[in-house]
Amino acid sequence: MVKSYGESIVxxxxxxxxxxxxxxxxxxxxxxxxxxxxxxDGLVFVIEDEQINNRRAEKLALGVRVQxxxxxxxxxxxxxxxxxxxxxxxxxDFSGGVLNGCNRKTEYxxxxxxxxxMRRHYYLFRGQLGRLSDREKxxxxxxxxxxxxxxDMADELGVSVETAVQMVHRTKMKIKGKxxxxxxxxxx
Length: 188
Fold this sequence. Notes:
Helices cover about 70% and strands about 0% of the residues. With about 190 residues, the protein is an all-alpha fold.
């Protein structure tokens, strides 16, 4: 697994079953997309860095002296490469030699597929929030986003803190049941 920001969450996600994955999305809902994006950035960097280092090592091994004619734009060339790598990682389309010069191609492709799955699962989860009643949305979505705790929720709804905890748990289980079915390939 390629290590990047959020690596422990990405690692946990890759090792989890469908139920565990839903728990991770719930627990990190407010930052989940940021974790994915920073992991994509990290993967792009690692790929680009390996390609650059392998190119340099190859030139040194061949004894090739690098000349600059003044017509090349090394910074622009790198940015173009980075954009192509990013597109490949996000779309999981590594055709066209995007990973040429890499020794860990399989690892990079697997990581890209995992990040893609995480993104798709997150959006599926968000879609499942639409199945909730207006009342459930009024407390559960702010809870997920970190904007409302159990005490605030209890005060606002006029219930005990214990009841608020139970309400969140029931709502989570409602969404989790559907999500687990979908993630396991069942039609819910």
